[in-house]
């Protein structure tokens, strides 16, 4: 993880310094990071809500939610995005599981249609042969569309 930014604007290191007496170079952990930001409540916090299902509208129900709502966490790009951009390329992610943009879904949908058009099969062996045939018959151009 990259260093963060304290509410005062100062840099916040997420790893203990190498001269730390007990944990040199170790990740500080969520509780320590929240303490340093002055956001730790007197009653304490859970590390995360059960199953990462935080109550709607709550920003301080658990350590995970509290940290991930901080401006420096919200503005942090993913490591993959930073790597791609550092090489001078554009990185454009499409929405997760969006069937109209996912080439695998395009391929699978075309193969299923082809399988239905072929008609009924009577045995498992015949079905396996037809499925492979249908998968192989989809033109590359249709997948890339």
3D architecture notes:
By secondary structure, the chain is mainly α. The chain folds into two domains: 4-86, no CATH class; 103-144, no CATH class. It has helices at residues 30-36, 63-68, 71-74, 79-86, 103-118, 124-137, 140-144, and strands at 4-5, 11-12. A two-stranded antiparallel sheet has the order 1-2. A hairpin with a 5-residue loop joins strand 1 and strand 2. Helix 5 packs across helix 6 (124-137). The longest helix has 16 residues, at 103-118. The chain is elongated. The mean pLDDT is 87.
Biggest β-sheet, characterized? Answer: 2 strands, antiparallel
The run of helices and strands is EEHHHHHHH
Domain module count: 2
Shape: elongated
Strand order of the largest sheet: 1-2
Number of helices: 7
Estimate what percentage of residues fall within beta strands: under 5%
| Fraction of helical residues | 40-55%
Strand segment tally: 2
Q: Extract low-pLDDT stretches.
A: none
Distance between the termini: 37 Å
Mean pLDDT: 87
Structural class: mainly alpha
Nearest-angstrom radius of gyration? 25 Å
Considering the chains and any ligands shown, give keywords for the structure.
145 residues, mainly alpha, 2 domains, two-stranded antiparallel sheet, 2 strands, 41% helix, elongated
Quick structural summary:
The protein has 145 residues and is mainly alpha-helical. Helix content is 41%, strand content 3%.
